[in-house]
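Predicting structure from sequence has reshaped protein science. With that in mind, we have picked out one protein's residues alongside their backbone shape tokens:
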Amino acid sequence: MNAKSPRETMTEMNELVLPNDTNLLGNLLGGTLLHWIDIAGAMAAQKHANSVVATVCIDSVDFREPVHVGEIVTLKTRVTWVGRTSMEVIVEVFAEDCLRGLKRATNKAYVTYVSVDSKGKPKEVPGLILETDEQRKEYAEAERRRAERLKRRQPGQN
């Protein structure tokens, strides 16, 4: 099992926001965006693990501004941290208004996945090769988020 760099796990997914994806104001529904985030993040995790993955936790999602009907949503992902069987993926979301030529960052999320075998049991994943100071910083921040998640799972810590 060869370690991989975050660069090797990068994925990009595009979606056109249609009327059935929006609320009464013509803004993208949060649930639809969460669905897209989960799919895009899983692709990066599967590239890293070379196996099927299951979502463990959507740690945080920042909704910075609305995305409107007719805009193109781009979700950019990469693995930021790996454990023995689990991985954290950052998903950065951008919206593009092609009619006005404007593109902006709208959301960011951290999602944890576990690699599973054909019976749904956790399976080991390759290590992560950190090539830059930015990647090392992301890894350290992911370790902090993981510690917080584990703390929340302890009885009486909620």
